[in-house]
Design brief:
7 helices
């Protein structure tokens, strides 16, 4: 059974804040969203606008959709971290393989 989006958002906000040892005031300071709004989202009494959802996501270094996903990716996958550190030759090789596979 699917959960309501407001419940998913509230759960994800709590998990993300706990992981970073944030309280609602820290989220307020980092996102620019009022205390009242944050408390309404956490209590599932209101849903944020797309703009406010994006502001909260940016505070966590995420995309807005991740806050509404029941299984959000909140960490950078290891493969992406490895690619960021890869040589230009390795990146070019991987791009060639991906292009070939896409055809």
């Amino acid at each position: 059974m699917n959960k309501p989006a407001t419940q998913i958002l509230a759960e994800n906000l709590r998990k993300l804040m706990a992981k970073r040892d944030w309280n609602p005031q820290i989220l307020r300071d980092k996102s620019g969203i009022s205390d009242k709004s944050i408390y309404l989202y956490l209590s599932q009494k209101a849903a944020p606008s797309v703009q406010k959802l994006d502001m909260m996501a940016q505070a966590f270094g995420l995309e807005a959709w991740q806050l509404l996903s029941e299984t959000p990716r909140t960490e950078t996958p290891a493969i992406l971290t490895a690619l960021e550190n890869a040589s230009p030759e390795t990146v070019a090789f991987i791009e060639q393989v991906l292009d070939r596979e896409a055809k």
